[in-house]
Write a structure and sequence with these properties.
The protein is of the alpha+beta class and 387 residues long. 31% of the residues lie in helices and 26% in strands. The chain starts with a helix and ends with a strand.
Length: 387
């Protein structure tokens, strides 16, 4: 919605592709086609018929590759299709990391039809814990964390439910020396990272879950760690010949400050990360995304704003009927924006992935210490009320 609204504000005619009949963007875009963004030929036909000047797959991994492919066919601004494909499919990304001497965990790639015995043989030299997941999903959908092979079959079935290409991957869980996953977005212009939006990822169930429930900035990385992370990200951009755009990152800092890329998504981050970073840097990242996909030049000139910024993903641990939001009194003064996806009486599903979010709360604090204090037991301080 923010991308469509921004494009219209900039004077562009907007054409939306979305297979969901209830999508809210259809009421804002100038034209809507109920087609899947993963159907390359449909995207190509629509783009050609509408004579579009640019295509933006905003905050969507599955749509990024079709968008790049169609842009290349039509001669529209795009990053190399091969780069987008590598970043968007986990097993190809892992192969790329190994070939280019980036840190990479031990992996085993297989199909859902592979026998359980073969998968067990494929992971027999891996150290537990391991992670099993689809290679083409996002938002932590289909991801399982295993301490032993006892629930391997269940994890494979779960991953298969969210796999379109029917290629799954098992990989060693990376031991990290820094307690948080480093997330956020970077923005690239002319092949150079011009905005380095590194943040700490909040995880559900007191950090035990794989599902993100927010982001914090600034993070607590040392100057040495930040420089190492920036350097490895720029090396990645160079190796892929990426020229422009916003990219979502998930990174672990391992032993000896080694940088392990969990994901580098070829699109803006979900959970309204571009809006959070726009607030933190005094820029408009959504506008920059629109302009750069249209071939326009962008000059961001980011400057870090005062204070500390945190988002919290509103969610429920149970199914029910949405009745409102409860925020602890000590946090209310820090809340400066709320975006709620549900209305009273709407159905809410138990949170097991980004698609089950109820909304986003934006908070601003005087400094990182105040933000870190507020984060303690955050799931008990901001609640989704369900009936």
């Amino acid at each position: 919605m923010p991308a469509i609204e921004t494009a219209k504000r900039l004077g562009y005619r907007t054409v939306l592709i979305d297979y969901l009949s209830e999508n809210p963007g259809q009421f804002v875009a100038d034209k809507w086609y109920q087609e899947s963004t993963t159907d390359v030929e449909s995207v190509y036909r629509i783009a050609k018929d509408e004579q579009v000047s640019g295509i933006l797959a905003y905050a969507s991994d599955p749509a990024a590759f079709p968008a790049a492919l169609v842009c290349e066919r039509l001669g529209l601004p795009t990053n190399p299709v091969k780069a987008v494909e590598i970043l968007g499919v986990k097993h190809k990304f892992r192969e790329f990391l190994k070939e280019n001497s980036f840190a990479c965990p031990a992996t085993f790639t297989f199909s859902p039809a592979t026998s359980l015995v073969e998968v067990q043989q494929g992971i027999e030299n891996m150290r537990f814990p391991i992670v099993v997941k689809p290679t083409d999903s996002s938002g932590s959908k289909g991801v399982s964390f295993l301490n032993d092979s006892g629930s391997l079959a269940t994890a494979i079935t779960y991953a298969d439910c969210y796999s379109r290409n029917k290629i799954l991957i098992a990989e060693e869980f990376i031991e990290r020396i820094y307690p948080y996953v480093i997330g956020g977005d970077i923005f690239v212009e002319s092949g150079k990272i011009v905005l380095f939006g590194d943040m700490e990822c909040l995880r559900g169930d007191h950090g035990k879950s794989l599902i993100p429930i927010g982001e914090k900035r600034p993070n607590g990385l040392s100057d040495r760690q930040k420089k190492r992370l920036y350097s490895e990200l720029q090396r990645l951009v160079d190796a892929l010949n990426v020229r422009f755009g916003e990219f979502n990152i998930e990174v672990l800092v391992g032993r000896d400050d080694s940088i392990h890329f969990l994901e580098v998504g070829p699109r803006a981050g979900g959970n309204m990360i571009p809006i959070q970073l726009s607030d933190a840097f005094g820029v408009d990242l959504i506008e920059a995304n629109i302009k750069i996909c249209m071939g326009e030049s962008v000059e961001l000139n980011p400057v870090s704003a005062k204070g500390a910024f945190m988002t919290y993903v509103l969610h429920s641990n149970v199914d029910g009927i949405f009745s409102g939001i409860s925020i602890a009194p000590e946090l209310k003064s820090a809340v400066y924006r709320q975006v709620i996806y549900k209305r009273q009486g709407d159905r809410v599903e138990a949170f097991d992935g980004a698609g089950k979010a109820v909304g986003i709360v934006f908070l601003h604090f005087s400094d990182k210490s105040a933000m870190d204090l507020a984060e303690i037991d955050i799931e008990s301080k901001i609640l989704v009320d369900v009936l």
